[in-house]
Amino acid sequence: MDIKDCLDHSCLSDVDKEKLIALNNPKVIKIIDEYIGLCKPAEARVIDDSPEDLDYIRKLAIHNGEEIELALDGHTVHFDGYHDQARDKEHTCLLVPRGEQHKYGKHINTINRDEGLKEILEIMDGCMKDKTVLIRFYSLGPNNSKFCIPALQITDSAYVAHSEDILYRQGYEEFERLNGSEDFFYFVHSAGELTDKKVSKNIEKRRIYIDLQENRVLSVNNQYAGNSLGLKKLALRLAINRAINENWLAEHMFISAVYPLDKSRKSYFLGAFPSACGKTSTAMVPGNTIVGDDIAYLRINEEGEVKAVNIENGIFGIIKDVGPRDDPVIYKTLQSPNETIFSNVLISDGKPYWTGMGKQIEIPDRGINWASSKVGEWFKGFCCDDEGNEIKFSHPNSRYTIKLEELDNVDEALHNPDGVKAAAIIYGGRDSDISVPVYETFNWNHGVFVGSSIESETTAATLGKAGVRKHQPMANLDFIVVPLGEYLQAHFDFGKRIVEGKQPVIFSTNYFLKDENGKYFDEILDKKIWLLWAEMRVSGICDAIKTPIGHIPKYEDLVSLFKEEFNHHYEKSRYISEFSVRIHKFLEKIDRIEAIYKEEENIPEELFNELDNQRKRLLKAREKYETDVISPFNF
Ligand code: SPV
Ligand code: MN
Questions:
Q1: Quick check: CB of 226 below 6 Å from ligand 1?
Q2: Could you report the per-residue pLDDT of 74-88, keeping only the tens digit for each?
Q3: Burial class (CB in 10 A: 0-12, 13-18, 19+), 227
Q4: Which of these, 127, 234, 393, 591, could form a disulfide with 190 (CB 3.0-4.6 Å)?
């Protein structure tokens, strides 16, 4: 069949058809043909990587009311509907062939593939009526790299396309390079019918269905980026499946270069933290340079080392608490003219306001924001949300979207097609009463166990109640679309393939430990000290104390780091409180984790071995020291 015959849609101009035909890729044409036919847009535009096309998208987002221009050049605001402010886990489902649903654990919502497809395709029938559909080509990973996965995005939201232009690398050329191959991911998104305030109206029909068989995700009746942007968490899910089959890892991790205080060395750290647990702020610790803050692909190169790339090109970051003191680099960028989309903040006089932007700013009493069920006027005392509480001026999950290149601290290796060498991996959670602020695991397998045991109190980044303790293996649980056992086995197997001595050192951090009065021990920037200590360990510069959970810092090393960096005396009493090993708390956690894994099928032997060994070490220490809370000075 001549591929030109497929594109018999009056909504496509000849110029646009030519752009598609030039790619010489029958699968691309077939997909576009199918979804234009189904979604029935008024107009279709094929966007290549030209500056004119990208400018068209920016203008369209403003023209159609999905974004509003702000006072500073390049700044816009976008509002998601009141019930569309976070990832919707409930309506995100994996399409699973008949008879296979039992293989997947409790963590994934699954739906029979035939039924799910029927349902969502019905919802999508005519969903782009009167709208312009945008056909976009992107690259997940640096261009022309072994890591790169080309991705086709079809969306009727100019906000989604604009966000992806900021957050991802353009990929029309990657599709040319594909030379007809079917090896790409694709995403079809529709915000669905919009209200007069341009937010998705039919929220009860919001669906995000993941189809591993076709390497595609269909998403409808939403705008919040975590639900709508194919390239973000929807692609992460497809990538996790693909990585398992190809022996690499797709992780919810930042990548940053960490330097000692005298800047004499540089090591790349990766870190996995559940949403809203300090991942971006760890990646952005002042003095370090950033490669990425959210998603990394990891591969082992020919020398047997771990290399990692950021598959993104920008940051979709939580804006709450971004202020000049704790987040100076981002704050400065957000106050400068450049391409930035704010979402769900208060707007007054063309300026954005958010919670925790610093004491120097007075928050206006009126403005527009996400407060009413329609986006609209907000005023101090605005009542009420679904629980009857006063509505604050800015949502806890309000965000900013910027290009990494806007930041002063972007790392030179951002686009390196070979990636950066991973010297260390950090696993962090949100835990108020168990773990110490930082420790180094004994080896790769112990580190995998620690990553697999992350627990975190829920946050505003997903819909539902915040503050509930949840198991969050590798901070990736929300995105793991394969049985948990397979995912964990892939981590153990990955470790075996790394050349001995080249394994990244795995650390655990916890910034959320509280004292008996419920006050956090740590200041926000103290995480820099934990990173500096980890860097010293990676570089072989300092000794550490061996405990049953791993190696912890010596008091004197922390005293000098706090002194040199913050000119602050790190009190011995605080050290003892923070770094004591709370045996029964760890044991209770092990019991919780064990119970979860015992309910899953095919959890690797290695994991249970690590768990048993960890438990034995803790029990032995309790016997030896005859106490349940062991001071670091005792070891
Ligand atoms: C996260 O929640 O982990 C994010 C934002 O990075 S989202 O796009 O919602 O996934
Ligand atoms: Mn994330």
A1: yes
A2: 999 999 988 898 999
A3: buried
A4: 127
Peptide bond into 11 cis (omega under 30): no
**Ligand 1, atom 3: closest residue by C-alpha:** 275
Sign of CA dihedral 339, 344, 350, 352: negative
The string of pLDDT tens digits covering residues 164-175 is 999 999 999 999
Angle of CA points 199, 162, 133, to nearest 5°: 70
The two structure tokens encoding residue 176: 């040319």
CB 279 near ligand 1, within 6 Å:
no
Pairing of strands 132-140, 43-46: parallel
The CATH code of the domain at 3-67+83-247 is 3.40.449.10
Looking at all shown ligands, the one closest to residue 225's CA atom is: 1
What is the per-residue pLDDT across 373-391, written as a single tens digit (0 to 9) for each? 545 788 888 887 777 878 8
| Helices (H) then strands (E): counts for the chain | 18, 33
Mutate to test the pocket of ligand 1, among 187, 233, 480 (most ligand atoms within 8 A of CB): 233
Q: Assess contact for 291 and 270: CB atoms under 8 A.
A: no
Residue spans in the chain of domains classed CATH 2.170.8.10: 316-406
Determine the pLDDT at residue 2.
Answer: 58
H-assigned helices in 405-540: 444-452, 484-497, 527-538
Pair 457, 469: CB distance under 8 Å: yes
Give yes or no for residue 504 CB within 6 A of ligand 1: no
30 CA from centroid of ligand 1 (Å): 31
- Residue burial 422-460, b: 16+ Cβ < 10 Å; e: rest: bbbbbbbbbbeebbbbbbbbbebbbbbbbbbbbbbbbbb
pTM (2 d.p.): 0.96
Q: What is the DSSP string of 253-308?
A: EEEEEE--TT----EEEEEE--TTSSHHHHHT-TTSEEEESS-EEEEE-TTS-EEE
Distance 630 CA to ligand 1 centre (A): 37
**Is the CB of 399 within 6 Å of ligand 1?**
no
Strand, coil or helix: 513: coil
Residue whose CA is at the smallest distance from ligand 1 atom 5: 226
Q: Give, for ligand 1, the residue of 91, 224, 232 to mutate: max count of ligand atoms closer than 8 Å to Cβ.
A: 232
Q: Tell whether ligand 1 has an atom less than 6 A from the beta carbon of residue 233.
A: yes
190 token code pair = 């529709």
SS3 call for 138: strand
How far away, in angstroms, is 275 Cα from ligand 2 center?
A: 5
How far away, in angstroms, is 294 Cα from ligand 2 center?
5
Report which secondary-structure segment, H or E, holds 170: strand 169-170
Token output for 217: 């995700």
Is CATH 2.170.8.10 correct for 316-406? yes
Q: In this model, does residue 33 exceed pLDDT 70? A: yes
Domain at 251-313+414-634, CATH from 3.40.50.150, 3.40.470.10, 3.30.470.20, 3.90.228.20: 3.90.228.20
277 is catalytic: yes
DSSP secondary structure, 547-602, as one string: -SSSEE--HHHHHHHHHHHH-----HHHHHHHH-EEHHHHHHHHHHHHHHHHTSSS
- CATH code 3.90.228.20 region(s) in the chain: 251-313+414-634
